[in-house]
Structures are given as C-alpha cells and as structure tokens.
C-alpha cells in the first residue's frame, strides 16, 4: 500500500481527552477517530490490526472445534423477557421500538438469541455437544465511556456458546476454550494471566477472566508470590485465621462521638486502632435488608455478599432506607439491638474481636467494649476483600496485587438460559432434559487497545509482528531522487511478491516527518532508501529494539525473513 493514497492522519499533539497511552497513540498514529462518546471509527491502519486479531481468534476457535456463524445485533425483547434479563440487565441495555411499536434491544451479548436458535434446531442428545461462535459488533450504553477502546458503547467481540448433554462434556469444552484463549493471547504477544472470576450479569459458575497485565487496568488481580494462583480481587477467598486476644470482656459503654462517622474519624477520636472498630454497612439484597459487618481495617466485598445470598442485585441501602430501617444515619450504624427484620452477616475477622468499637444506631454515639456473641449475634462467613500479605488461598505463599485489563472471559453457564428459554433435548432414554451451556467471550477491539497499552515507547506504538498493520515500512527518503524512487518501486514490488505486507511512504515529505510518523505508527521493520541507493545499500531498522544495519539489496530478503519470523 502506498502511503500517499492511504488515510493515516497522524497528530503531533496528544488529544486533550485521551487519558491512557493506548488511547493517545491510537488517535495520534491515525488508527482510529472518535465519532461520539465511546464510539469510534477504525481507520485503515486500525482496521488492519483489528482484522489480524480477529484472524488469530478465528484460527484458534476453529482449531478448538468451534463453528462460526453470525447472529443479528438487533434482538427481540421477548427473548430477553423470557430469560428475565430485560428487567435485570440495567440501563446498559440499549432498548428501542420499531415503527410497529415492537420492542428490541441492540445486543450487548447473545445468550438469548443463540439459546433460542439451538432450542428450535436441536432436539436429540445425538446432536450434542455443539460449540458455535461469532465475531460481531456489540452495544452497551456505558454510563461513563472512557479509555478509548477499553470502555466503549460500541465494540467488536467474539462470543461463543456451547451446548451439552453432560457436565463432563461441558468441562471438556471449557478446558479446550481455556487453552484456545491462552494460545490467542500468546500469539498476540500479550503478558496476561487467567484468573478466577465472578460471572456478573451473565450468570453461571466456574469462570475465568483473561487479564492483560497493565498499571492502568481497572481490575485488580490477587496472585500468589510463590504459585500460579491468580484471581480477580472480587473472587479471591480469604483463608486467614484469627485468634481472640486473651483479655477479659469489659462492660459495654455508650460514648458520645458528635460528628465522627468514618472509621478513621472514630478511631482517631477514641484513640483506638481501626482494626479495633467494627464497620457496619446496610445493604439491600434483592428485596431484603442485611447489615454487613467487617473489621475497620477491612472492606466489604459486595460480590461475596451477592454470592453468599445467591442474589440478583446487591446495593448499599439509600440514606432514606437506612434511616427508616435502622433509625439513624450512615456513620453510626452498629449490630446491637437491630430489628429482627434485618439479617446480620459478619466476616470471620469480626468474630475474633474483643472489646471493639461499633456504632450505637443513634446519631452522635458509638459503643465501646462491644463483644460478638455477647452483645449481638451474626452469621459468619468470608465477606471481605483479600489484602496484600494475606495467605494465598491455595496455601502457597502470600497475596500480592497487580492491575489488569480484562480481554476474555469463559463461563460455565449450566442450565440458567436453557431452562428459562426451554432449550431441551431427548436423552438416550427418551426423557426431556435441559441443555447444559458454556459461554466464552473475547473483546476483540479491547484486545487491540490492550496490545497498544503494552507495546509502546516514548516515540509511539511498537506492534508485535503477528498483529502489526504491515510488516515493513519502506521509506525512500527523497522521492525527487530518481535512484531512490526507482529502487523503492523495485523493492516494493519484490517484497509484495514474496508475501510481505508493505507500506511505502511515497509522500513528498521531509525525512524527519517520515521517520517520526514511522516511529509513531510502529510497524516492526523500517527499510530506508537513502544516499546509497545507487550502490544497492539500504538501512534496516528494527522498531522494538532500535537496532539498525546497512544491508545490500541482495541480502535484504534473508535479513527480513529472520527479523519478521513469528515466534
């Protein structure tokens, strides 16, 4: 491709609203442009990278036995109503009506559509297992689109769905998908981890997220410093043990704390450590209220609360609800003399506390010398976020934290959707059974951004060979020089003929502009045709190392072959 006839609008200045390096560089290097908040056009270079990632995904999905199809982005509301998600998915679901006033949604995912499709076409166990995938644009009305392609309202996703007659069959496919995902992200050159995860709005159990390690990641990974254990911080189990301090329980005492509400304020005012305070938070769990207790130096994990109660929705009670249920405002809540209508669930660490501080359920007051089981009763479970330094749940080493960008997620859905949409089959004995399902997603456009986030330097993008928009950036320095122009044309045709993808900068620009754009775009190898063109000598520069060498035209193919070998 000749650069003069391509659309590569590079920018010298960093766009003001682009926070992340990947967002800045993909805009500056002319890979994409924003059309509206969270909505982007892929320009020619960006689209080539997107297609490279898609092709890797497609090859590995085919290799794993999944079959490609394409479903509509516009989905009937009735299907979502059958599954129940029309009402529970939330405002991220883009809803609309057609001219006949029929309701539709722009698909953020396709569990309902694929389940209804297989329900209508597959009736016997002899047709199972079945594994189907698509690569398609998805839509989610994000409240705060940000970080470019990492959190948009329109994005490209690969979603696969498997259907089974047994859990063993699902396990086998799940493992194949896990291995396929690992190969996909390895081929993209990414530094990633597969971590234990929560299934979120999709539902199901036994899930893993594939996280690209990055300091700008929105997710926190808890991992062992001595083993392969890794989990999203939301799902990391706390296995720490707690021993009660061997001191006598003192008399319960109500003390005035006029304006002290937070743990930090209360602990400072009463001159006690935060770990000696009980943090009390009122949650609305579906249609009931639950008072959740953790130690003052710990944080409530609402995902664990949700999973403990097997709830659909968990959220903090509003100010009004808190006053109505507990009789006081947030900041003075505590577990003593709580209405029987309110369940109390506490973290294991709370059970070991002695002579603690807790809210008195009265504005301006706290209790001192609060002792669990004497002053209040609760159900104890693991309900807090794991912390760095805690024991690793697998019993090996201690926990450390890293940031990650989620690029893939695999789920065991079970029968959640097949039962709701009545996707059944006849087993060997002629009995009707619900299909057992799995779900496997990769954010394709998000993966492009994750690669850009990991592969860049102070001069621009540094694409791995497997996903680079072109293999070679061919740059005749002076297009007015007949020798350079002639050699450039010859090399361009020869390299294309040998199967290389070549971008030739045939623009009438100054050398400095050409080199700056080349570094910004980040093509793996640059071949510069300069003053030694008449001698048949060119300069070859490797983008990721900065190494440069002069090479004769006769040796160029061998040199490029070794530099562009995909590991």
Automatic annotation (TrEMBL):
Protein's cellular compartments: Cytoplasm
Keywords attached to this entry: Aminoacyl-tRNA synthetase, ATP-binding, Cytoplasm, Ligase, Nucleotide-binding, Protein biosynthesis
One annotated GO molecular function: proline-tRNA ligase activity
Signal sequence bounds: none
Chief location bin: cytoplasm
InterPro entries to which the protein is assigned, alphabetical: aa-tRNA-synt_IIb (IPR002314), aa-tRNA-synth_II (IPR006195), aa-tRNA-synth_II/BPL/LPL (IPR045864), Anticodon-bd (IPR004154), Anticodon-bd_dom_sf (IPR036621), Pro-tRNA-ligase_IIa (IPR002316), Pro-tRNA-synth_IIa_bac-type (IPR004500), Pro-tRNA-Synthase_IIa_type1 (IPR023717)
Ranges where the Aminoacyl-transfer RNA synthetases class-II family profile domain occurs: 38-464
Described purpose of this protein according to its UniProt entry: Catalyzes the attachment of proline to tRNA(Pro) in a two-step reaction: proline is first activated by ATP to form Pro-AMP and then transferred to the acceptor end of tRNA(Pro). As ProRS can inadvertently accommodate and process non-cognate amino acids such as alanine and cysteine, to avoid such errors it has two additional distinct editing activities against alanine. One activity is designated as 'pretransfer' editing and involves the tRNA(Pro)-independent hydrolysis of activated Ala-AMP.
HAMAP family the record matches: Pro_tRNA_synth_type1
Domain notes: Consists of three domains: the N-terminal catalytic domain, the editing domain and the C-terminal anticodon-binding domain.
The protein's name: Proline--tRNA ligase
């Amino acid at each position: 491709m000749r650069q003069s006839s391509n659309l590569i609008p590079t920018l010298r200045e960093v766009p003001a609203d682009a926070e992340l390096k990947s967002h800045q560089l993909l805009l500056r290097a002319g890979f994409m442009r924003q059309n509206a908040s969270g909505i982007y056009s892929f320009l020619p270079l960006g689209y080539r990278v997107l297609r490279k990632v898609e092709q890797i995904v497609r090859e590995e999905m085919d290799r794993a036995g999944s079959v490609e199809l394409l479903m509509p982005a516009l989905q009937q509301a009735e299907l979502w109503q059958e599954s129940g998600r029309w009402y529970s998915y939330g405002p991220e679901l883009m809803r609309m009506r057609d001219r006949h006033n029929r309701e539709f949604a722009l698909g953020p995912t396709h569990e309902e559509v694929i389940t209804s499709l297989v329900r209508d076409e597959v009736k016997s166990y002899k047709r199972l297992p079945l594994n189907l995938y698509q690569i398609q644009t998805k839509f989610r009305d994000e409240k705060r689109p940000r970080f470019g392609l990492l959190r948009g309202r329109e994005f490209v996703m690969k979603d696969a769905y498997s259907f089974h007659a047994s859990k063993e069959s699902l396990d086998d496919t799940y493992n194949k998908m896990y291995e396929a995902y690992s190969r996909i992200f390895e081929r993209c050159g990414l530094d990633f981890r597969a971590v234990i995860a929560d299934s979120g709005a999709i539902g199901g159990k036994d899930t893993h997220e594939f996280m690209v390690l990055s300091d700008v990641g929105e997710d926190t990974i808890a991992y062992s410093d001595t083993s392969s254990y890794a989990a999203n911080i939301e799902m990391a189990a706390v296995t720490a043990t707690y021993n009660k301090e061997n001191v006598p329980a003192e008399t319960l005492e109500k003390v005035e704390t006029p304006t002290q509400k937070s743990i930090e304020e209360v602990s400072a005012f009463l001159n006690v450590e935060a770990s000696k305070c009980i943090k009390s938070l009122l949650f609305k769990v579906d249609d009931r209220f639950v008072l959740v207790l953790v130690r003052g130096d710990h944080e409530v994990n609402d995902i664990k609360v949700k999973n403990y109660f097997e709830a659909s929705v968990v959220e903090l009670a509003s100010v009004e609800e808190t006053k109505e249920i507990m009789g006081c405002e947030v900041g003075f809540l505590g577990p003593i003399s709580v209405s029987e209508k309110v369940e109390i669930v506490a973290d294991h660490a709370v059970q070991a506390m002695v002579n603690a501080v807790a809210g008195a359920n009265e504005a301006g007051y706290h209790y001192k010398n609060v002792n669990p089981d004497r002053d209040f009763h609760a159900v104890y479970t693991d309900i807090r976020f794991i912390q760095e330094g805690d024991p690793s749940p697998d019993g090996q080493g201690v926990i450390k934290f890293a940031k990650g960008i989620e690029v893939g997620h695999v789920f065991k859905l079970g029968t959640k959707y097949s039962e709701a949409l009545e996707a059944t089959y006849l087993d060997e004995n002629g009995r009707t059974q619900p299909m057992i399902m799995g779900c496997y997603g990769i954010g394709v456009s998000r993966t492009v951004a994750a690669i850009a986030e990991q592969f860049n330097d102070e001069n621009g993008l540094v694409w791995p060979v497997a996903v680079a928009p072109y293999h070679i950036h061919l740059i005749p320095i002076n297009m007015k020089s007949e020798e350079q122009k002639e050699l450039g044309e010859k090399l361009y045709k020869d390299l294309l003929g040998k199967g290389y993808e070549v971008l030739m900068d045939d623009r009438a620009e100054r050398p400095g502009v050409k080199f700056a754009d080349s570094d910004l775009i980040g093509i793996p190898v640059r071949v510069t045709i300069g003053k030694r063109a008449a001698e048949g000598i060119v300069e070859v520069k490797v983008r990721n190392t900065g190494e440069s060498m002069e090479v004769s035209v006769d040796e160029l193919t061998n040199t490029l072959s070794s530099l562009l070998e995909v590991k």
